Amino acid sequence: MTDTTMQLLSQGTDPVKMPDFDILAEGKTLSGVAERLMSLSLTDNRGFEADQLTITLDDADGQLQLPPRGARLTVLIGWKGEPLTEKGTYIVDGALAEIAHEGPPDRLTVSARSADFRDEFNVKREVSWHDVTVERVVSAIAHRYGLKPQISEMLMDIEIDHADQTEESDMSFLTRMAEMLGAITTVKSGNLLFIMPGGGVNAQGQPLPSFAITRSSGDRHQFRIADREAYTGVRAYWLDLNYGKKKKVSVKRRKPPKPKKEKRAAAAKVIIWKARKAMCLCYARLIRTSRQQDAQRRQSGSNYNAEPHHSPSRWRVDVQNSTPKCMAR
């Protein structure tokens, strides 16, 4: 421990929770993994996408042996001094599994996929479902793979008049049915789940425990605000029970109307008209000023003819902010 940690502990401050884990291979705890562990990553995917486990171990001494293909790894994570939570069983087999060794420094990386997902899930079938409930469909598919069905209570008694599963896998059919009903379906820990999302309850309808997450709950945080202007609209789906079809409603964000060519042409005409009016006013002002100067010379006497008559030879009109200005040069 660092001096700062020891000082905090001596002052009676609650110690920082330390993460803990355990890895079982074929039901037996792997010894020496804690000292070699460099990283452990769990990816919990939604729907029928296999969860992923990635473990990186230090093999600087070259004593590690590669795990056999088909090895089953069970992972438990939590905090030291507290009961660990099982996060599923993973198998080092299939397209998503990988064993890699690299160095120096030598290290072994093992990637495994959830053992709940099997190759037979992708078998296409020909089934015609008629006058059945959601509970019967989900239960029949679950029993086919030795899984335990877990269905939300509000979905169990929904009746299906007729549905054809033509050259379609069971998981694809369940996903399509779940989307029609606004539900989600997946396989977790030997259970085939068919539940409503975001309800704050588990598959049995019991409320999930709640707890507050504050800034002090972790060692780092990230806060981000998305630009609302980046969204051009929103689309919502709903189920028409009369026809058994999924429909959608789209609303687009209104954009400020762009000036049309006619409006731009009219604005240009106004500017030209103001410029011409300003030119006329400037010319009238020049004539009036010239006449006043002539009158003053006549009143001054004999010097009138001696002084040449100069008048502004040219002028220009500036139109700025729709306000014409006359400037003699």
TrEMBL record:
<dbReference type="InterPro" id="IPR052726">
    <property type="entry name" value="Phage_Baseplate_Hub"/>
</dbReference>
<dbReference type="Pfam" id="PF05954">
    <property type="entry name" value="Phage_GPD"/>
</dbReference>
<feature type="region of interest" description="Disordered">
    <location>
        <begin position="292"/>
        <end position="329"/>
    </location>
</feature>
<feature type="compositionally biased region" description="Polar residues">
    <location>
        <begin position="292"/>
        <end position="305"/>
    </location>
</feature>
<protein>
    <recommendedName>
        <fullName>Gene late control D protein</fullName>
    </recommendedName>
</protein>
<feature type="compositionally biased region" description="Polar residues">
    <location>
        <begin position="319"/>
        <end position="329"/>
    </location>
</feature>
